[in-house]
Amino acid sequence: LRTLFTTTLHTSEETDILLHGVSSDMMTQILDYVYFRELDIRSDNARQLLVTADYLFIPDLRKLCYDYLKVAMDVYNCIGILSVARSHSCADLEAHARRLVLRHFGELYQQSEELLELDVEELQAIIRSDKLNVKDEKVVWECILRWLNHDPDNRKDQITGLLKCVRLGLFDAKYILKEVLYHPYVKENEECRPVILETLEFLYASQMMTKEYKEIVTPGIARPRIPQDILFAIGGVRDRRVSDVIEAYVARADRWSVVEGVDSIGPRACHGTTVIGFDVYVIGGTDDGFDGLRSCRCFNSFTKTCREVAPMNAPRARLMVAVLRGVVYAMGGYEDHVAQRTAESYDSKTNQWSWIAPMNSKRSNAGVAVRNGT
């Protein structure tokens, strides 16, 4: 900013300098910050202050606006912040906003006015993502129609590129024929025809393969998106026998299913489970319904692989487990049919268990919780 006013490139007679796109209110805020270190950042001016600070190259002010927006970001303003962050190379802020948009897309596609102002490239990047959190793929189609209808004359030619971002293979054939194929935007655009034909051919082929009990390679148009919220039920007792079955509940689909194609954790009941990142730790328990185990296994929910990790210092069944600041804690439980008060911690980085102070009383089958990270 100083350089702009002190440069020798201007003649001495020039006293007025035009700052394009900077309002008088923004300039007042900038000068107050430069001279008095006073700044009133609010939800209604933070984005414009960031743009202005970037334009005038004031790094400290840019950082203040960046920090404010990251804390103030919510489902109502995340799309606008995403656009600003993307335009002004705020990579971390952009990534944070994008995660929020993808996670809450089911709410945003109907309510957000800022979504209607996105350019087609940004909209495609969002709806193409495997991490888009939608309970039904029809949500994506409805979002496209809402965006096109906002300015149909200038946007309807974008239908083909947008249609390719929808997992059309997850629709049933009746919906494709009724709601998509004969929609005016699709019907009037010849470039959409190959996309629809590919989808119908896949749906027909998958129906035939199912009847003949054959496998079919799933194309991109039918690949499910990555679930955002999953519960795992691991092992336990089924039909009076210790089980190794893993079931998963996908909140988005409101459905339970057996997790296929995974490494077996082995029969396990009365164990403790906890999660760090993608790793689900299966700790202690019993594999025969009687004797407690020291062994611990780690199931990676992303790769669907299972590995043995370091065993506990003591066998425990019906124990309590929790994670605090990335460290796993195992407490109490039964050893040789006797309740224990001992406790230990596990560091996943060093793959090592260590004794910690014992509890004041013996416990098993109890609950344990972490509050506010403490």
UniProtKB/TrEMBL annotation:
Q: Which GO terms describe its molecular function?
A: actin binding
Q: Which UniProt keywords apply?
A: Actin-binding, Kelch repeat, Repeat
Q: Does the keyword Phosphoprotein apply?
A: no
Q: Which residues form the BACK domain?
A: 78-181
Asked if the Swiss-Prot or TrEMBL record annotates the protein with the keyword Repeat, the reply is yes
Which InterPro entries does the record cross-reference, listed alphabetically?
BACK, BTB/POZ_dom, Kelch-typ_b-propeller, Kelch_1, SKP1/BTB/POZ_sf
The source's domain of life comes to: Eukaryota
Protein name stated in the entry? Kelch-like protein 10
A Pfam family it matches = BACK
What high-level taxonomic lineage is stated for the organism?
Eukaryota, Metazoa, Ecdysozoa, Arthropoda, Hexapoda
